[in-house]
UniProtKB/TrEMBL annotation, chain A:
A single MF term (Gene Ontology): glycerol-3-phosphate O-acyltransferase activity
Family: Belongs to the 1-acyl-sn-glycerol-3-phosphate acyltransferase family.
Record-given protein name: Glycerol-3-phosphate acyltransferase 3 isoform X2
One BP annotation, GO: phospholipid biosynthetic process
Pathway as given in its UniProt record: Phospholipid metabolism; CDP-diacylglycerol biosynthesis; CDP-diacylglycerol from sn-glycerol 3-phosphate: step 1/3; Glycerolipid metabolism; triacylglycerol biosynthesis; Lipid metabolism
Keywords: Acyltransferase, Endoplasmic reticulum, Lipid biosynthesis, Lipid metabolism, Membrane, Phospholipid biosynthesis, Phospholipid metabolism, Transferase, Transmembrane, Transmembrane helix
Principal localisation: endoplasmic reticulum
Entry membrane topology: Multi-pass membrane protein
PANTHER family, sorted: GLYCEROL-3-PHOSPHATE ACYLTRANSFERASE 3 (PTHR23063:SF10), PHOSPHOLIPID ACYLTRANSFERASE (PTHR23063)
Organism: Mustela putorius furo (European domestic ferret)
SMART domains reported in the protein's UniProt record: PlsC
Xref: SUPFAM superfamilies: Glycerol-3-phosphate (1)-acyltransferase (SSF69593)
TrEMBL record, chain B:
Keywords noted in UniProt: Calcium, Metal-binding, Repeat
Pfam families: EF-hand_7
CDD domains for this protein: EFh
Protein's UniProt name: Calcineurin subunit B type 2
Domain of life: Eukaryota
GO function terms (MF aspect): calcium ion binding
Role summary: Regulatory subunit of calcineurin, a calcium-dependent, calmodulin stimulated protein phosphatase. Confers calcium sensitivity.
Length: 355, 170
């Protein structure tokens, strides 16, 4: 604000001060930083998918022909193959984990459970034609730690579990998701919550603390943004995950939008249509960067720690960093933001207090 | 209204047809209840506008017919004043209108006070604000009528290169 108002502290009000706010207002009206993150990224050059074709213009017969060919390949060749693979993968997961769950607790059980998880995840990733590059594997999250990553879609979970086993945290769902969840928890401990329990933050924190206290348990996977963002930026990390203690292992995930748009716009598409869109894209190509572990420093509060981790992830993944809360997708912004703007402006006028 | 295929070509603005297309999409996106016009609530649903103390003034300036909402034509004409191709005169007019709440062509003491109050909120006492307002009017009011006309306003602001500040790329 100081730069925009081009003043020194304690200078008088000038008529041109209103220009700063007007201009900021107009900029936000034309394109704002926040709501654009809740819809798919616009591509610079078209990748032959109708869904990314925002400004349709007929260009040439050849291009249309190529596009038609693309549609045929994607829907008639790739889709059936992928659906079959997905079916195999999920069935194997449910059957495998149920079988492993019958065994008594032992290191054999853990080893088998990991095997089942990894195999089925790899099959499922193939079902999406996923090509994943893992960087810095030496920093892969260890047992007893917390893995923290930016969130773009439910596929993030699949991408990460292909390379290692995690304990998931989340709400209990019904339907297909519910079946998978119940099967998974038989083979190794995950932390599933009832919807009512999620509201009780202390209960959540307590259960997570108990989990990481046991060093033999798998690292917990958490997405602190709390909602899906479109992979161009990282929004506010909720401090809850950073209050539990323990070692945080940050992970940055960046999808290549040329091959397919991985972002799940949950207000526009339900899970099934989202998966269908995924399976009719060219491929899911992404980079995963494992980062050196971070812990809360002396005297650092959870919010600052969360921001530190967020910046690290944003820098590594090449994403913009935004202080806004991803929850703004559905909720209104608080009035305190406006009051803060007013306070900052007033401070400029008053300077050292002698008005 | 708000139907992309039928945006009237006769809206005289500084925008190219590409820019109008983009703005038309933006208008549709902002128009949450699809009423064809934007209310203050719809503007304020953008977090960055919600935190802007002058959003009500900007909407009022856009709203030329005074019905409390901004229809597509007012939206285009309003944003056009910030276009990179706009001239200095219309930008000065826009800036002046931010202060001129009753649109009578003069910024009165009370109007200046109200706008300043919007910008500082409760962080300054009313008497402090009044002091600032009185000082500004004394300095700017050349003809001594106690209020600031457009000519007096432009005389001061013109030299600040306002046309460079009030530009937004579409």
């Amino acid at each position: 604000m100081e730069k925009g108002l081009s003043g020194l502290r304690g200078r008088d009000f000038e008529l041109s001060d209103a220009f700063y706010f007007s201009k900021k207002g107009l900029e936000a009206i034309v394109e704002d930083e926040v709501t654009q993150r809740f819809s798919s990224e616009e591509l610079v050059s078209w990748n032959l998918l109708t869904r990314t074709n925002m400004n349709f213009q007929y260009i040439s017969l050849r291009l249309t022909a190529v596009w038609v060919l693309g549609v045929l390949v994607r829907y008639c060749v790739l889709l059936p193959l992928r659906v079959t693979l997905a079916f195999i993968g999920i069935s194997l997961l449910v059957i495998g984990t149920t079988l492993v769950g019958q065994l008594p607790d032992s290191s054999l059980k853990n080893w088998l459970s990991e095997l089942v998880h990894l195999t089925c995840c790899r099959i499922c990733v193939r079902a999406l034609s996923g090509t994943i590059h893992y960087h810095n594997k030496q920093y892969r999250p260890q047992k007893g730690g917390i893995c923290v990553a930016n969130h773009t879609s439910p596929i993030d979970v699949l991408i990460l579990t292909t390379d290692g086993c995690y304990a998931m945290v989340g709400q209990v769902h019904g339907g297909l998701m519910g079946i998978i969840q119940r099967a998974m928890v038989k083979a190794c401990p995950h932390v599933w919550f009832e919807r009512s329990e999620m509201k009780d933050r202390h209960l959540v924190t307590k259960r997570l603390k108990e989990h990481i206290a046991d060093k033999k348990k798998l690292p917990i996977l958490i997405f602190p943004e709390g909602t899906c963002i479109n992979n161009t930026s990282v929004m506010m990390f909720k401090k809850g995950s950073f209050e539990i203690g323990g070692t945080i292992h940050p992970v940055a995930i960046k999808y290549n939008p040329q091959f397919g748009d991985a972002f799940w716009n949950s207000s526009k598409y339900n899970m099934v249509s989202y998966l269908l869109r995924m399976m009719t894209s060219w491929a899911i190509v992404c980079d995963v960067w494992y980062m050196p572990p971070m812990t809360r420093e002396e005297g650092e509060d959870a919010v600052r720690f969360a921001n530190r981790v967020k910046s690290a992830i944003a820098v590594q993944g090449g994403l913009t960093e935004l202080p806004w809360d991803g929850g703004l997708k559905r909720a209104k912004v608080k009035d305190t933001f406006k009051e803060e703007q007013q306070k900052n402006y007033s401070k400029m006028l008053v300077g050292n207090g002698s008005l | 209204m708000g139907n992309e295929a039928s945006y009237p070509e006769e809206i005289c603005s500084h925008f190219s047809s590409d820019e109008i297309k983009r703005l038309s999409k933006r208008f549709k996106k902002l128009d949450l209840d699809r009423s064809g016009s934007l209310s203050v609530e719809e503007f304020v649903s953008l977090p960055e506008l919600h935190q802007n103390p002058l959003v009500q003034r900007v909407v009022d300036v856009f709203d030329t017919d005074g019905n409390g909402e901004v229809n597509f034509k007012e939206f285009i004409l309003g944003t056009s004043q910030f276009s990179v191709r706009g001239d200095e005169e219309e930008k000065l007019r826009f800036a002046f209108s931010i202060y001129d709440i009753d649109k009578d062509g003069y910024i009165s003491n009370g109007e200046l006070f109200q706008v300043l109050k919007l910008m500082v909120g409760d962080n300054l006492e009313d008497w402090q604000l009044q002091q600032l307002v009185d000082k500004t009017i004394i300095v700017l009011d050349r003809d001594g009528d106690g209020k600031i006309s457009f000519e007096e306003f432009s005389a001061v602001v013109r030299g600040l290169d306002v046309h460079k500040k009030l530009v937004v790329i579409v």
